[in-house]
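User: Show me a protein chain along with its predicted structure.
Assistant: Here is one chain, sequence first, then structure tokens.
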Amino acid sequence: MARPRKKTLGSYPTLLVVFSITLALVVIGLFGLLLLHAHKLGETVRENLEVQVYLERNLPETELLRLQQDLEHQPYVAEKAGRAQVRFVSKEEGARQLLETTGEDFHNFLDDNPLRDAYVLKVNPTHTDTASLRQLGRSLGQMRGVFEVQYPKSLFTSINQNLARVSLLLVGFAAVLVVVVVILINNTIKLAMFSQRLLIRSMQLVGATRFFIKQPFIRRATWQGFASGFLAALVLLVLLQYAYYEITQLRLLRDDYLIGLLLAGVLGLGTAIGFFSSFWAVNKYLNVSLDELY
């Protein structure tokens, strides 16, 4: 007959603690990934908003080149792969685009092309608020050779307002979630430490110093927090890769740098909570009276 396994002094369900902390960190990490991709989506939407700069008629080639260089050096023009997002649309190309869009050719009833040459530029996401766009319109309108500046003001305003509302909602929910998860992990470690209260008091009674008593508990809880953070980061990485595999368009919103910071934050959060929760819990049981231990 097998003898029952004897528990070692000071042992408690380590696997259960690590599992509980890992689960809590995965929840907050998933919401963090949602925030990152929502932020990237907002930037992508803003980057694809365009401003049309219509030019005076019959500008010479030198003036067109000068104007393009001036536009490319403006701080409100978005860049991609180190190149300013400015493209020239001739009036002939504009006529072709109009024909493709409407299906009607104005050459049938007009002798001349009434459209103008234009530069189409994409706006830096940091300059898409109402005040910046107003300043952008004035700045472009004062350039030599510019006839008119047009951009969908109502669309810009609507996008900014909607993104602001969604961001505020997500950040508020994230703050609440962080508090809940931190409290949950803290309570998990405190419950584990509760089972060690008598051992802590026994060590006190035999003359062990406070530092000697604290050290093994804090070290164990810190390593458990680190292990939980590592496991949570690994789970999040696997889930993220699976999401990219299932939804290929989601890869367009990928930002490896921010994702790396988030995973490091999950690892650091687990380690920090493990350390501080055990530190406070051990201090509590070092200072309570004998009657309060039961």
